[in-house]
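dumping this here so i dont lose it
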């Protein structure tokens, strides 16, 4: 299962794509896709408490739900 919350957090902390991919056990392509979608949909830091992991998953990839 992808952890889009963690990808977003690490990206906004300035971690490289390679570092995020290694930390989250995802491909760099998947990390890039998540970051691109997060920016497109206005999902920026700071993430607030209401933005649960499930909320982020649905917001980024609604077609999967």
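and the seq i came up w/
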């Amino acid at each position: 299962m992808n952890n889009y919350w963690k990808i977003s957090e690490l990206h906004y902390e300035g971690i490289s794509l390679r570092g995020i991919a290694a930390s989250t056990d995802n491909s760099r392509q998947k990390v890039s896709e998540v970051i691109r979608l997060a920016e497109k949909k206005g999902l920026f830091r700071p993430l607030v408490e209401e933005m649960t992991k499930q909320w982020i998953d649905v917001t980024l990839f609604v077609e999967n739900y």
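The chain has one domain: 4-64.
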